[in-house]
Amino acid sequence: MRNQYPTLIMVQPAINAIEPSAFARRKLRLRVNGWDSIRGYRIGIVRGVGTSEDGTRGMPHVLAVTSLTQLMQALAADRIDIAVSDAFSGLAAVRQLGLSREIALLKPPLQRVEIYHFLHRRHADLVPRVEGVLRQMQASGELEALRREAVRQYGIRSGGGDGAK
To answer: Which domains, ranges and CATH numbers included, belong to the chain?
Structure first.
């Protein structure tokens, strides 16, 4: 990140995380264990999502679509075996499309990517103050409470099992 955006300063601690995850039709019995565990399947990703593009780079059967809706519809139509999306957005799309009985979130996630706040270097003097506030929010549980509330507002449940029986 530092090489790509040399004028930005990463603020600790991480404020959230993205968990690229595999979704499959409920009939598929698969134990997920990282990106390599889905290599032999027909995989769908949303074009432009860096974690999905990076994780599937070099895999033989990857379909890139333009939207999460298209991705989940392709999975429901059996055009792909695995759809890759962050768990939160994927579950929201599955629910919105009415596909909860057909599509399951496989666990664990394929990867966990920590998300940080960044400040421009001209605001370097603010880094200690912002880090202090974020550390207090983390210690008090406020960051986690904010994440849970966002999930609750979208009505997302992490159900769906691991897909393996």
So the answer is: 16-113 (3.40.190.10)
**Type and span of the H or E element at 113:** strand 113-120
3-state secondary structure of 3: coil
Hey, what amino acid is at 134? L
Assess contact for 151 and 134: CB atoms under 8 A: no
Identify whether the C-beta of residue 124 lies closer than 8 Å to the C-beta of residue 9.
Answer: yes
Give the span between the Cα atoms of 36 and 40, in whole angstroms.
8
Tens digit of each residue's pLDDT, the chain (165 residues): 567 889 999 999 999 888 999 999 998 889 999 999 999 999 999 999 999 999 999 999 999 999 999 999 999 999 999 999 998 899 999 999 999 999 999 999 999 999 999 999 999 999 999 999 999 999 999 999 988 887 777 665 544 443 333
